[in-house]
Prior knowledge:
The protein is mainly alpha-helical. The protein is 57% helix and 3% strand. It has twelve helices and two strands; from the N terminus they run βααααααααααβαα.
Amino acid sequence: MTTTVSVPSSRGPRLLARASAEALGTLFLVVIGLGVLIFINPQAVPMPAPLASGLAVTAAMLAFGYLSGGHFNPAVTVGHVIAGRLKPVDGAAYLGAQIVGGLLGALAIFAVVRTVPGITDSRTVFDTATSGFGTHSSFQVPLAGVLLVEVLGAALLVGVFLGVTARRNPNRVAAPFAVGLTVAVLLQLGQSTGNLAFNPARATASAVFSSSWALEQLWPFWVAPLVGAAIAGLVFRGFGESTPAAAVAVEEPAEPLDADEWDEKSDEKSDDGADAVAPVGAAEVSTPAAGPAAVPAEATPDVDPARDFFDGKRD
């Protein structure tokens, strides 16, 4: 007989705390990414803007990743949802938090720009750091080229994130550094083709404070990264990295297990590394008063491998 048991998530902080971490991390990324790009001076600031952004990603993941998994990018979140690592409801909360955090970060930089005496048009200054194509691209890259680069870059970024935080990856300790370096090299490519960010939250934040053309050209910088994220998420879902999110089918044996069988079953692990079994009481399954003894129910909690990595759950 098969019984469906709803298993509440027992790992990680509450959604509000996780969303707040995503907002704070995205704010940090936008402040560094836009600030360094706008105020760049090769003589005074020898560090390239893409490298600064990559280091900011690494720092943010190390600082806030233990709370939320350290996405800080709608493309990364969508990739996790499609790969089955994050509930859609949680993903929607992450997206909203990332947009809010990005806008607050851009507002902070905009306020700094307004204080500079020699700048008469702050929006024009933001144009130099805003994603664009055609005449608003440094190399006059057309829309088709920008879409292609954004799809490819987002797919690579999300693929690296999903791969380096996978439970079976023995090098997960290097996740923040791998993701940060990936962001740095991709932004080096994106900067020369039109300030591409491979991050819809950052693209939106800079477009809001730029000239009117930026909002008109914003849609490709949402569509293309999400398409790339979907491709990466589907690939990893095909690898069997996903975990059930809402309900778990539990088989109840016809006869109760003896002590030796229960000990062996308790030591088993599921394919994705999560505990294979849990006591029936943990899942709140009602059992008849009479009849055989209670039988352990198999239950897999909703797990985000990236968040588990930052929580220190590395088995």
